Known about the structure:
two-stranded antiparallel sheet, 67% helix, disordered C terminus
Amino acid sequence: MIFEKLIIGLGIFLCHFLNGSNIFELGGSFKPDFMMVFVIFFALRKGSFYGIWVGFLGGLLTDSGLGGETGADQVIYYKIGLHSFTYSILGYAIGRFTKNAYNENYLSITIYTFVFTLLSRIILYIMFSIFFHDNANYSFLSTTIYTSILSPVLFFLLTWIYRLDPDEGKV
């Protein structure tokens, strides 16, 4: 039980480093969101509880890599909590409401990843705009399309690595 959670934690760290690396970058802001695929995978395969805690820890790690911004009052403001909130809420919603309708085939994986990655990008953009400032270079569709194209391969690899049986929901 604890060993399984440690291995999931290692996967979260690996996704964080893959998000920060330039290995899969195709130019500009054309990069996949590995952490979102990881959250979607565990929410669909293990349920809402795993979606929440994988989303929170993965989002918190993603937020820690953002750094801070100096405001108009010369105070540094850190962006901790935006990704963790978004990934947690989406992880719960995916595990709670879409897990029973999930079919494990390439088309459904691609569609789920496209919809939820786009939704996370929109929520994050709105939250950044409310709490910080608008970002004209923020990528919605390029990241979403690239992530959804890679998602069936990533789901296959994650299924092979973790060899998971569903915990919640289906009997």
